[in-house]
Amino acid sequence: MRLINIIPGKPLALFLALLPFVLVFITYTVGSDIRLSENPADKLLPAPGTIWDTAVRLGTEGDRRTGRILLWHDTWASLKRLGLGIGISAFVGLVFGLLIGLFPLLRSLLAQFVAVLSMIPPLALLPILFIVFGLGELSKVVLIVIGTLPFLIRDLSQRTLEIPQELLVKAQTLGGSSWVIAIRVALPQIMPRLIQAVRLSLGPAWLFLIAAEAIAADLGLGYRIFLVRRYLAMDVILTYVIWITILAFLIDWALRNLSRRLFPWAEGGL
Fold first, then answer.
1. How much is the CA Rg of the chain, to the nearest whole Å?
2. pTM as predicted
């Protein structure tokens, strides 16, 4: 039997899925033990137990000055910015992706323009955003929108173009107007892809969020990481990094299950 035809059962699939995490944990633990055995005061690779204790402390104990549990306040501040930025990008990307993919005139007008915009490094615009929109929430949300919107538009317009022409021709022969075809034929076809595109945009969105918070913020996960780095508090930094990873995974998992529930006819994905 060829390797490409071997499909693992559930127990083997679970084992294979967990194996990379176990190997990373073992590698980190061994590296930490080696450094701490040479220098017990080493801060670069804190022991897993230290990271766990720090996570418990950050999630349960309030700040000495404000009394607030900073981990939860940072999480709420970052999730608000991320949700707002991704939500705006998804809505605008859906509208323009549908229009560019379905209407040749708008495709001729906007497709190359969006392609050029997508080549601009969003982080290079960060100083301009701070100058134009100030150091408040707006500049951070705009950075996420600028960083994710061109990809969403291009991906969704391409998916719209891939809709079988037979569907569009049949809708026209039944008397459907351009508006009706866009809403009742094309839109249901690309909605599953919208969720997939948002999932793929989450990684860059987190990157832009952390970058913006690192430069100008007084609350947020990125702000906290860059604040404590001054003290080489690796246990706090690693706790926040692990927490961000867990949040990103949970959001991705929720979107994947939402797609399966709303569009069970769509092709399955990772």
1. 23
2. 0.86
Q: What is the distance between the alpha carbons of residues 123 and 145, in angstroms, rounded to a whole number? A: 12
Per-residue pLDDT, 136: 83
Distance (Å, whole) CA 256 – CA 264: 11
How many H helices and E strands in the chain? Answer: 11, 0
Residues 6 or more apart in contact with residue 200 via CB below 8 angstroms? 151, 155
Lowest-confidence segment of 18-32, 73-87, 218-232, 234-248 by average pLDDT: 218-232
Q: Are 159 and 101 in contact (CB under 8 A)?
A: yes
| CA dihedral over 203, 204, 205, 210, signed as positive or negative | positive
Asked whether residue 254 carries a pLDDT value surpassing 90, the answer given is yes
CA angle, residues 48, 54, 58, in degrees to nearest 5: 145
Q: How far is CA 121 from CA 9, 116, 124, 246, in A?
A: 43, 11, 5, 27
Question: Which amino acid belongs to residue 154?
Answer: R
3-state secondary structure at position 73: helix
Residue 250 and residue 122: Cα distance in Å, rounded? 26
* CA 84 – CA 153 distance, rounded (Å): 17
Give φ, ψ of 119 to 5 degrees. -85, -10
Average pLDDT over residues 58-66: 83
Query: Quick one: residue 220, left, alpha or beta (phi over 0 = left, psi -120 to 50 = alpha)?
Result: left
Question: In Å, how far from its chain's centre is CA 38?
Answer: 39
Closest residue by Cα to residue 195 from 269, 99, 84, 247: 269
The amino acid that residue 22 corresponds to is V
Which residue's entry shows tokens 């060829």?
2
